[in-house]
Each structure stands twice: as structure tokens, then as C-alpha cells.
Amino acid sequence: MAYRSITKRWAINSLGLITLVLIIVEIGIGFGIKNYYYSSIKNQLMSSDHVNYSKINENANNSKLDFKSFIRDMVENFDSRDKIEMMAIDSKGNIFVSSSGFEYSEKITTKDYQEAISQSDPVAYFVGVNDYGEKVMSITRRITPFVTSECVAVRYVVSLEQTDKNIIIYMIVITGIMIFVLLLILLSNSYFIRSIVYPVRELGNVAREFATGNMETRIIKKSDDEIGELCDIINYMADEIQKTEKMKNEFISSVSHELRTPLTAIRGWGETLASMMPEDDIMMKKGMGVITNETERLSSMVEELLDFSRIQNGKFTLVKTKMDLLAEVDDAVLMYTEKAKSEKMTLICNEPENVSYVFGDKNRLKQVFINIIDNAIKYSEEGGIITVDVKEKDNYIIIRVSDTGCGIPEEDLPKVKEKFYKANSTKRGSGIGLAVANEIINLHNGELFVESTLNIGTTVTVKIPILEKDDLAKATITIQNEEDLNIE
Fold first, then answer.
1. What's the angle, vertex CA 319, arms to CA 314 and CA 322, rounded to 5?
2. pLDDT in tens, 102-127
3. Which CATH superfamily is domain 314-485 in?
4. Where are the domains of the chain?
5. Chain centroid offset of residue 151 CA
6. Cα maximum dimension of the chain
């Protein structure tokens, strides 16, 4: 369908226009050739008339001259008689002498003669078919009242039959040239059209493969022009779709596993508690504690997924107020101090006594610090050290969380803030926590950086601008346009 459509458009828009232009040019050339030949013949007739009329005028008043004999002699000795026929016409319309020697029995009735005799202009011009069916060009000159009625007009006639044949021959040659030019254009443009149509058809076939779910197909690049660039773009798009699809599948698998683990624990302890004796208080408290912790863990994961969904839909909401960022950092550190100890790690917090206020959503910012510290513990081993440093510099509050964990490979580092991406699939987590954290920081006009060295550790740095004077006039901000979120 694409091939026919493009070819049809080319035939109508390009080839059709070129053909029309060539036809118009040929018609113009034809008129030009005809005008040139006819004008040349007319000039020859007018020139002959001018010469002969001058001779007639010189002898018109010579009473001793036999004017009719003079005219007869002039016609019979006409210099251009091999090309032009000169006739002398009497007052009755009879041709009494012709330079061709042919005797005419009929009276002259042509249009040029009639106009020359009857109108004020003594010269009349005619192009057409004469009484004998021959196409001619003629000029008639009225010479009275200078002379007697023995000769009232002279007429010059040229046959156009051969001239028209020559014009036709020229037009046939020109038509052949035009057809040859059109064929050259057709061949060259056909090659050009094929160079576009075939790759486009291939692009369509590959796109249909993509639509059926076959993302392994790739387009072979055959040129470095715009078509080649389009091939590169589509191949790149397929690579990225494959990567995204892979990350999505890993995300679904990871989330399913993450949800299954606490649900299994809750179900197991629920069945255990249901079969226990009421007086077993220790086991009851332990079971309820596990159920509570796993429920909170489920709630946290669900909230993270909801946040991610809100970001994707452009409905993520921040409630910004004047706040002490140091207090939220302290709360996050306090929450994970015991967890770090239980996993035989050390959590250290280095912070000043106070820092400037910031304009932000304290719950969301605490969520960011919790996520970063949780990741630091998650990717560290026993004996690891997690360090939280807070300082104020250049109108920013800078929070740096460092660990001595497994680190991130250099090739994976640029992707860690992307949705669904997990550098280490062996660790728990959905892979969207850092992506959500990055968006929250962006919405606070801040920045989040990740630096890491494989098998040495990772450092996550968060920069939040301090409170400005005009920030206090700002109210709740609801992000309703996904474009404002700068989601990768």
C-alpha cells in the first residue's frame, strides 16, 4: 500500500507536473517556430512589395510610358519569382500576368484582394487556403489612382505547404526530444523512488513485527541519509523498548516476590496463632510483632507503588511548608539505627547543631532519606559502615549518605535513577524507590547524585535549596502536568 501510494503521489505531483511543463514548452516552441517562419515570409513579401511599389511610383506619371507593358515586364522579370509569385490584376479582377507564367482564367476573389480594393489601407495581408485548396500567404497592393484602370493591384503569393511540413518535422523532432527527456526523468526518479519506497516498506514490515511482540527484528542500514538515520532511530527505539520490557518484567517479578514474602509470614503466623493456646503470651507477642512489621512493610511497598503511579499520571502532590530538614534526617537515622545494629552494621550521623530552614514537604523528604538509608543497609554486608553527613553550603543543605557495600558497576551507574532499574537483582526491593526519591528532590528544586565504586561503596548526595523570602507566600503545589515532572 505504501509503495502504491508514494508512487501515485509522485506520478501525479512530480511526473504529471513535469509532463505538463514539457507540453507547454513544446507548444510554446511550436508557436515560436511557426511565428518565426511566417514572419520571415511576410517580411520577404513586404520587402518585395516595397521595392516594386517604389518603381511603380517613379514611373506612375510618365505619360510616354506604356504602363501595362511596364507592369508586365516588371512581373515577368521579378527577381524572387523562384520563391514568390507576383501577379498583376486589372480593374475587372483578372490576373493578366504572373511571374510563374501560369495563365489564370478565373477572377481573383481572395480576401486580401477584396480588402485592398475596398478599404482605405492600400495593402492587405492574408494567410489561408486559396481557391485551389492550397495554403498560402499573400499580400495585395492597390496601385490606383496613380495609373489607369489597366492595372489596379499587384499581388505577392507564397505557398505555405512546404513551410508547414518543415514546421511539422521540427515539432516531431522536438516531441522526440521531450519524450527522451521525460524517459530520463522517469528512469532517474524511479530509481530515487525505489530508494525511498523499499526502505519504507522494510520499516513497515519491521514495525508490524514490533506490533506482534517480536522485538528481536532489526532494520539493516543501507545508507547514511535521512532513511539511514530513521533506521538507526527505530533500531535504538527497539533496543530501548526491549530494555524497558526486561526491566518491567524484572520489576513485576521483584514486586511479586517482595509481596509474597511478608504475606507468607503473615499467613504463617496467623495460622500459628490460631492454633496456639491463649496462655502462650510470649509466642502471641512475637507473632503479633511479626505480623505488624510485615504489614508495615507491605504498606510501605504499596505506598511506594502508589507514589510511582501518581508520578506517572502527573498527579503527585507536595504540601510545602517552612521546615527543619535536620529533624527529618534525624528521624530517618533513628528509625534505622536499631536495624543497622541487628544486621551488625554501624550507622553514623555527622551533622551541625542547626541549619537553615527549607521550603518543602517534610513527609516526602523523610521518605527520601528513609529510602536512601534503607538502600545503604540493604546493599552492605556485616561490619559495614553507613555514614550520614549533613552540612550547609552555598545556599543549599547537603545530605550525603555513604556506605561500604558492594557498590555499583560503572556501566550501571547512569541508570540507577531510572524506573524499574535494579543494579543488583539479588537484593530485595522494587527498583522504583530511587526513581521516586529523585522525582521528589526535583520537585523541591534540588538535585540527587549517585557516586559509586564497585566493591568499595556508594555515596548518594542530596542538595536542597534553603528557604527564600518569597517561598513563604507559596501554597500547596499540585503537579498536574506530567511534563513538569521531568520523568526520564
1. 140
2. 888 778 888 888 888 888 888 999 99
3. Histidine kinase-like ATPase, C-terminal domain (3.30.565.10)
4. 2-166, 244-312, 314-485
5. 81
6. 169
